[in-house]
């Protein structure tokens, strides 16, 4: 009896455990639907151990046709993106970030013509996988419909090149992320692909190992506003950037092996608002008129360049009368001195200068005290003096150098020379000095004239010897 009872209990426990396990397994294969409000809805398929595209839950059919739907497949084991089932909604976003994708089938997104956001980053996608057939809508009346794609993230893959027709059916593409791919060279077909996306506003080419951008890349990108070229192999700022100078607002040029910036570096970028030139280990000099073309610049990040030791006092030449800069960050460079004439420091809203070896001299005191730069530092970000030794470790806002005449407000401004400002004594001495010089000149003139006269008389009075050619003595 006890044996039968024990067997029954054991059987019940096993059934309970099995059912619980089965339920857990089933949960890992089910996407969750979260309705944030009447319009926005999330279909969470992340971390479910999916290796293929699942069917949608039945509740998905309750989505309003005007709804906004986010579908996440983050951190699964999908290797092949097959045809994605249709889903209601006017704007659809899908993320396949951090899977193992090596293949995408033709017409994978044909059921999602309202797909506006597609994230395929951190996979193993090669350029051969990215064909025009994968980014197109359904086939009707002998043509393929376009899809509404606006943002495409292809970062952190294995892309070397792009199909020239990849964006043929994505006319609304405005943001393209190609960063952290081993592109190395923007070949002809890749240039054709990028330039065909004529509505691009954001382009990320950072960490792609490129060192040049062909002119053809930007000829058609008249709407490009944001460009990231960080972490590449540029030894100079590409000249081709001038083709997008009217539209470009933000440029990131960090971590490139560039040695100097000069008056050709940013030519044509007249509407640039924010510029980042940071973490460039080889950059050691910013020359005259470097920033002169940047007539609308508001934010400048010239920081974390560990060998930058010199900025020309004329780096902003021509801009000081029409000053637009509000934020300047010069932190963590190798600067020790800065010119008071570099910029109108009092017109800044924010200034960063920490992490440099500042020599607290009269020029720096002028910048910080008289021109008011000391009031532009953020709280807790006030630079220190590195030299002279007696000021080492002091905040640069605390320096008071008594031998600097700029701090003595009793000094009057220097006036230009004027004859009316001379005193009578000074006028007399001036006349006396001129008279002496004239007299000496006259005396020297008479002396020279006398010497010439004596010399001529001696020459004329000396007899001239004659020789008789018929004389026998000559023979």
From TrEMBL:
PROSITE patterns: LRR. GO terms for cellular component: plasma membrane. Residues 1-22 form the signal peptide. It holds the Pfam family LRR_8. The chain crosses the membrane at residues 427-448. Keywords: Leucine-rich repeat, Membrane, Repeat, Signal, Transmembrane, Transmembrane helix. It comes from the Eukaryota. PANTHER family: ANTIGEN BSP, PUTATIVE-RELATED, CHAOPTIN-RELATED. This is Uncharacterized protein.
